[in-house]
Here is the input.
Amino acid sequence: MTLKRTVAFSRDAVNVFFHVLTRCNLHCRHCYINPDQHGTATLPVETIETWLDAFADRAPVTNVIFLGGEPTLHPDLARAVAYAKNAGFGSITIDTNGYLFNDILGRITPDQVDFISFSLDGATAAVNDALRGPGSFDRCLAGIGRAVARGFSASLIYTVSRANLDGLRRMPELLARLGIGRFFIQVIGIRGRSAADGSFQGGDRGPQLSRAEWLSTIPAVAQEVADLGITVTYPKVFLEAGETFACAGKVAENYFIFPNGRVYRCPLCEDHPFHSLVFEADRLVPVAGMTEERFFDLDIAEGCVMNKLIQPGNIDYGPDGTPAYRIACCLLKEEIDGARGM
Ligand code: SF4
Ligand code: SF4
Here is the structure.
C-alpha cells in the first residue's frame, strides 16, 4: 500500500504551460481550446524561444510543458525542445494526442524530454473514440508503443467525466501493459468546447462528477494504479472539513501561455479576457484593469470563486443555503508515489 499526499502550492517551483499553437487534427468533445480567446496562430519558433527567455532566470526550478492544440503539428517543436533543454529548464514535457506528427520521435532524444504525455480518455476504443474521435484510441496506443520502444518516458492523462467514469476503472491494467510511468487524472472543466456543446452537458449536473461519484471512484482507482508502481496525480477537487483553502493564482507560480500572447494564472479563466499578463513586443507585462487577479482576492464560503462562477454544478448547498463543502483550487493535487509500491 502506498501513501497519498496533497502537493502543497509553492513559489519554489514554476510551471509554464506553453500552448505553441491551437490547431489540432482531432476535435475532442471536451477540448478546452477556445480560438476566440486563444487565437489561431502557430507561434514562430523564434517567438517561442524569446517567450521562454522570460522564465530563464528561474530555469532550474521551472517545468516547461509544450502543448496546444496538438504541439507535434508545430514544424519546429524539436527545435523549441532543444532550446528549452539548453536553457536548463528543470523539466520538459510534451503533451500530445499520440499522433506524433513531423517525426517528432526521430528529431528529439529521450534525454531532452522528461515525459511525453499522452491524452487518452478510455480503456477501450469505444469509450475513448466517442469523446476523441474515430481511430484516436488505436493511434494513441501506437504512439505510446513507439515512444516507449525508443526509450522515452511516457505518461498518460485521462480527463474524467460522466461519459468515461466506467472506463477509468479499467485503466490500471492498460497502463501497466503500455509501460506508462506516470498517470494524471484530470477533472473535466466547463470551458471551451464542453461549455459550448449543450449535448455534452449530461443533465442537471453536467458532465462533471458529483462529490459522491468522485470520492467513491477516483482515490480507489488511483491507489490501484499506484500499487502497480505507477505514480498517480489527481486533483483534490473537494476539500475536507478543516482543510485550508488556497488559490494558486495568489500563492503559486503557474503560467498558461497562448499563441495570441495572453498569459493566465488560472486555467478556469481561460474562456474570458481576464488574463493577468500578456506578451507585448516579446516582453511579459501585467495587464491593467479587470483581470483574473480580482477574483483571486474574493473570499467566499464555497472556496474557489471561478468554480462557483463557471461550474456551479460542482457545489451542493444545505437547506439553510450554506455550501455542504468547499471546492479546492483546480490546481491542488493529490499524489501517490508508485515507486514505493514496487
Ligand atoms: S483536447 Fe487536445 S487532442 Fe483533443 S481537440 Fe483539443 S487539443 Fe486536440
Ligand atoms: S481554480 Fe480557483 S482557486 Fe485555483 S487559481 Fe483559479 S480561481 Fe484560484
Observations:
- The chain has a mean pLDDT of 93.
